[in-house]
Amino acid sequence: QYLREIPYLAKFKMNFLMNCYLSMFTSKPGQPWKNEWWKPMSNARKRAYAKVIRTCRQYGITFCFAFHPQLGSPRPLDPDSQNDIDQFYRHYAWAQSQGVHWFSVSMDDVNWKVGGATACAAADARFVNVIFVRLRAKDPRAQLIFCPGPYWGDGTDPQARAYLQTLARNLASDVYIFWTGDAVVPPRTTLKAAASYKSIVRHRLFLWDNYPVNDARQTLNLGPVRGREPGLCNVIDGYISNPMMSQDEINRLPMATCADYAYNPWAYQPARSIGEAILHLAETPAQRQTLKKLVEAYPGFLVSGGGTGTNPARMKLRSLVGNKTSHSSAERFLHHLQDIDVRLAKEFPSRYVAARKTVESDIAWMAQQLSKQQ
């Protein structure tokens, strides 16, 4: 997926690619998460990521090496254990040997330990500082982004404030902080919340925008990013988009709008942006119409509401089935989705395979729901 998408990052004037830290887990796709962070990376994985790093360099993309030492792990890293730190750091030493200058450490989405927010923040800061000092000793240009426990909101929640204030005092000043916005998956991301959070954590911020991410659910979030205030660029140093998991090819549509927003937030217009994204990815009028219809069927949770896994096509079918007088409307919607699937196969015979699987799964589900109503 990374090798397939790097050219499109460059096409849309994006310049930064961070690997998903789940890609470093030892479990295989489809299996329960298993994060054996202490084990050396396999030679096959090293060869694969070395190629990704080289390809990024060829396209002018900065590669950021990311790892999470606790999430989904049967043996979460102890940040006060020298042995654990050494075992964890060797992954970063390898990436650095490949010419990587940017790194990320995540300690998000795990439970705080004994001592609560303050003790956890102090331990996290000590751990991240050790990694950062080692990286800078080898390369003075090395940069590190840290994803903390409270990575969203305005920072004023009492527990979040206690953690962030302790982090502010103890974390090396050059380390960046990941922040996802006003919420984990916010419909709106505001300058007010960003300024408040930054004033408490007192470090430079990267906005980790949780859009169009679908968290591996069988849905598509294809509409343009929206609700991100233009003034965010006044307090945020970097922006990254969290993509859909398996449908990386169709992810190019909303990703292009994220790039458009980040490139010039003051001039960004969501409707125009998604139209331009379709123009970039389609070569004929028929292809453009097909992608347009697909986006309209799956506009994304920023439009339809819900969360990252919300499926707007199924939501619409449920609403039509729930209205007993609308059975014919439900059937027409099913036929409309079937028509989109046929068009995708015809216009893009070797592309958007994962997206078509999602559409076809929805078609099968809808047909089953309608059969129950007969």
Outline of the structure:
It contains 13 helices and 7 strands. The protein is of the alpha/beta class.
Describe the structure.
- With 374 residues, the protein is α/β, with parallel strands linked by helices.
- 49% of the residues lie in helices and 10% in strands.
- The protein is built from 13 helices and 7 strands.
- Strands 1-2-3-4-5-6-7 form a 7-stranded parallel β-sheet.
- Strand 2, helix 3 and strand 3 form a beta-alpha-beta unit.
- Helix 4 runs parallel beside helix 5 and helix 12 packs antiparallel against helix 13.
- The protein is globular and about 65 Å long.
- 37% of the residues are buried.
What is the average of the pLDDT values?
A: 95
Computed structural class: alpha/beta
Tally of helical segments = 13
Rounded Rg? 22 Å
Sum up the overall morphology in one term: globular
Contiguous low-pLDDT stretches (5 residues minimum) are none
Note the main sheet: 7 strands, parallel
Strand line-up across the major sheet: 1-2-3-4-5-6-7
- State the order of secondary-structure elements, H for helix, E for strand: HEHEHEHEHEHEEHHHHHHH
Helix content: 40-55%
Assembly type: single chain
Q: What is the CA–CA distance across the termini? A: 42 Å
Sheet-strand content, in percent, reads 5-15%
Number of DSSP E strands:
7
